[in-house]
């Protein structure tokens, strides 16, 4: 893969990580805080023009 492709993909994934963390933190604050709570999380990434659907699941513990 080209350097431009790799840099573009890394920039996209960084944006996904940062904006997702901000959205989750805001939702947890709105719900009253994370103390003692566990959240099951799922992220789905699709790419137009490619036959890909990447799913990541995990647990977020407060």
TrEMBL record:
InterPro entries: DUF6494 (IPR045471). It comes from the Bacteria. It holds the Pfam family DUF6494. This is Uncharacterized protein. It comes from Roseivivax marinus. The lineage of its organism: Bacteria, Pseudomonadati, Pseudomonadota, Alphaproteobacteria, Rhodobacterales.
């Amino acid at each position: 893969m080209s350097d431009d492709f790799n840099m573009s993909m890394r920039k996209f994934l960084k944006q996904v990580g940062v904006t997702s963390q901000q959205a989750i933190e805001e939702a947890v604050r709105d719900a009253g805080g994370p103390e003692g709570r566990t959240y099951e999380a799922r992220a789905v990434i699709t790419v137009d023009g490619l036959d890909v659907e990447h799913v990541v699941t995990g647990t977020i513990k407060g």
